[in-house]
Amino acid sequence: LYGLAIALLVYILYFGHTAMGAQRWINLGFFAFQPSELAKLIIIISLAAMLHNRKIEALLDMLPLLALIGLPFLLIAKQPDLGTALIFIFIFFSMVILANTTSRLIFLLLSPVLSLVIFNIFPQFAHLAWIIYLVMLFAYLAVKKTPLFDTFCFMTVNVVIVWVAPLFWHFLKPYQQERLLVFIDPQIDPYAQGVRYHVDKSITAVGSGGIWGQGWMHGALSHLQYIPVQNSDFIFSVIGEELGLWGGFLIMLLEGTIVYRGIRIATLAKDSFGAMLAAGIAAYFLFQTVINLGMTMGIMPVVGIPLPFVSYGGSALITCLCAAGLLQSINCRREKLFF
Description:
This protein is mostly helical and about 350 residues long. It is about 70% helix and about 5% strand. The chain has a 3-stranded antiparallel beta sheet with strand order 1-2-3, covered by helices on one side. Helix 5 packs antiparallel against helix 6. The protein is globular, with a radius of gyration of 22 Å. The two termini are about 30 Å apart.
């Protein structure tokens, strides 16, 4: 399955169908198939297969997992599809945390992100704050008696990440840079006439629904086409405008129920592979929901993430149904079946 996912993602880069500035689909004539959606589920299965019954204590134990997630991450980011690539990272860390991974190793894996944040959050004395952090990190590694190879790798990554980050920024498309910049500092577009235009209209639509909404098929902003991609990425904006707070809350409750059932099935699973697989699927549904809702309400940057079981899109819906079917399979195998 993993080999199939990689082959499809490589095929997309050369022969994929391009739409809306991204090369993400295989045009089958009657259906535009998006391999990155199916790849999410395949990565969950692959990670579960590698993580179950394995204790992750050192960096060498983690390297195969990083390679497993790194290749599809780069291929999908190249399309470009930064939102889906980030979902891979969220799923990876969720499953690693739930597996038999030491808290020390999890912290060290996250340390480059912390290094980057510290370097950029104190612009007046960025280098001084960053050097102090590196010294503290090295002291922590020494106190914990971290193997020399792990210490060298973590310190190197923490140093290199600050130099490489600007290169990664230039790797992003201009519209992706604008979305991130305007999310960090809305004053870049204070009157919402540029890149903030659609996000501002989405926030207005959700807010204008009030408690009970404007009524089914009576959303002014939705039907006057002020909201973009309103049948997919911004479908929650339409729900908030037409059905109001209670309609939005109902969607959150339904999505939350799916996540809760996934976690419940993971805790009751009889084998570690089934538990890891169910946990990964629950994380997949959770992050897709949180990112999509946050995006439509302006508390997260805009990325192309569909709302599970709600957004229009054949590939996303098929993947969600397959994931739900796997959850059902894990659940029914908790007990011995009689015929």
